[in-house]
What does this fold into?
Amino acid sequence: MQPGTRDAGREMLQFLALPLGGEAAWDRLPQQRSFLQSLAEVDRQHVWRSYVKGATPENGYRMDPSDWELDVERTRTDEDDARGVPVHVRSSGADDLRAEYAKLDRASGLWYLSDWDELLQDLRPPMDDR
It folds into this structure.
């Protein structure tokens, strides 16, 4: 959200939201409101870092933006589900795995989550903020 990195950040977010990349104003769509709030609101900025291995509530969800890894586990091998490939995504700030669907963007060869609303809910805040 910083002025100097806003363009690069927006480009990075478009990789996450690949199906919305062709939509010039995707970040103004009503269904993207909770996603954008998780990025902009100071008390929710830990949400996405909570999915990085080693980032925990106890360490304030600190992570190295140059060297990080997500914990994603494929749950079934059924390729015919229109929602995508079922996966579990682990957050150190949540008690349960998050069930989501990943889809392959054939044009770019990148995988993306087809829905991320569940990823934004019920996460413990960083202990540094308490």
